[in-house]
Amino acid sequence: MQSKPRTIIEKVWDSHVVAEQEGAPCLLYIDFHLVHEVTSPQAFSGLREMGRTVRRAESTFATVDHSTPTTAKSLPIVDQIAATQVEQLGKNADEFGIPYFGFHNENNGICHVIGPEQGLTQPGMTVVCGDSHTATHGAFGALAFGIGTSEVEMVLATQVLLQRRSKTYQVQVDGTLKPGVAAKDIILALISRIGIGGGTGCIFEFTGSAIRALSMEERMTVCNMAIEGGARAGLIAPDETTYQFLKGRRFVPKGADWDAAVARWKQLPTDEGAVYDHSITINADELEPMITFGTNPGQGISISGLIPDPAAMTDKLERDSLTKALKYMDLQPGQPLAGHPVNVVFVGSCTNSRLSDLRAAASILKGRKVNPGVRMLVVPGSQEIKRQAQAEGLDEIFKAAGAEWREAGCSMCIAMNGDQLAPGQYSVSTSNRNFEGRQGKGGRTFLASPMTAAASAVNGVVTDVRTLLGVK
Amino acid sequence: MKFESRVVLMPTDNIDTDQIIPARFLKTISKVGLGDQLFNDWRYLADGSPNPEFVLNQVESKGAEILLAGDNFGCGSSREHAPWALTQFGFKAVISTSFADIFKANSLKNSLLPIVVSRDVHAKLFKMRAADSGMKLSVDLQSQRLTLPDGESVEFPVDSFSKACLVDGVDEIGYILKQLPAIEAFEAKRIGGLNTLVA
Fold it and tell me: Which of A296, A332, A398, B6 has the fewest beta carbons closer than 10 A?
């Protein structure tokens, strides 16, 4: 008998169910658990209070990224509260035997950057972390999602999670991205269409020719922001692009084990005829560079578009929410965002801090200068990316243009480490959230791709990068 | 879990976890002391004094245990600091038309009830609360019922397992560890596990 066709989401889920009892959530086995300094200390305290230990230290990996400064590594962490938090993760990793890339480790970096970089993230795995952008790892065909601190403690203690199945949501993107349009624009376009709650209760699978054409780094950008569409996870079936990226990395299987792993991974893609609970199609041919104007990632428009008018909305709560967002952003409805002054440009974060992102920004800055009115920070996602960028001279391009070239970390995406906007300032940021105060209390964020960010840095105003590329 | 309370009204959609507790307060290694920072950037003025226009600083909010908010409450990050801050302030329930998945899971682990109501009931609650700032609602987890001042009682969904854990005070990790043989049997059959201890 032919078994029912399944999506990759169901395949990965089914293969990790330890037990499933009527009325109770599944016991879902977790293959890889990333731990960082912000959401883990209370979990380790919980283990100690209950006299519990870490069941599978070998499936766990710790790093510091959120609270860490991106100034020279020779400098101490000035913020004593942050220093204590960073130090605490080192102690916890040591006590429980968890591998740890500490602040001074040569491979330190953003957890969602170093997992894939080290080959820790592999197709078909379940991956969790106390961080909503764990969805990033879905780019490898892994089922990867963010969890709270209670669940961090649960996974540390048991290596399983209690989970209910999510619905499946196919995001089909066909066609070809035009020059100046990036992977970031695909995901910003999706979220602007479905809203930030559009994927609640669901897991996205990104399919279609435009997704297949993306590099692994671009796929990570797309999956990273699945959570901004409300989905807990977003994944892309593995293919030759995935295997090429992974082969030879530090923690991937070697030799005959590699061949066996690839053979297993080839069984993962969604079966012909599998049915999704929801679906949407996006035509990549029609996409333009995207930018957000509001205070959530769903409030985005194409760079040639106009800021929407609350008066046109029928639902009172929606109208009031948009009015509140525009008031915070101090923007007028019906106006274009292109041409709006910018104070800060941030290239970095688990969304857009990888080598290809830095190359994209550098390609725009090469031979140009950051506008004198703009502060531009370029923060690589890991120390390894920093070295690679320096090896090809990208740092020199950034510095020559007048941008700051910094050490790895989450930096101004979450503004916990001192890298932040002043009240009232506007940034064009390659990060993932434009919530009120996200990049510093009173700061205002326009989310965009690295190309759009770099172009805006050059002009000092929100800029359609295609005008600099000579394609518009 | 059964209580009656006045209601704090936050008529905004998509209230994200960065508003509930801004990231700069997440540098703590403890769970306590977060109630004072709840909704910090809306709650305090630049000089640190309470913003008199913000609802939590108004006298009608004092002692209220129910927060009535717009759609998609708790979107954004996975920070469990959000329900910690809400419960430390004194909230026992949040009512909305929907909640972000991670926030909902985190809340249920901290005895904060995420109560989902229909758009109709939601609109009615807003209207009643606007007309009477002292409006009280009663919540009964056991029967999963929310009772309005006019006597209308609506059932709200709660995951049956989470409900049992809340009602009986079940330690979820302890529950899982009782199934250790099943986990070990799964691990014995598993192929391709990670070993980060191998450098």
Answer: A332
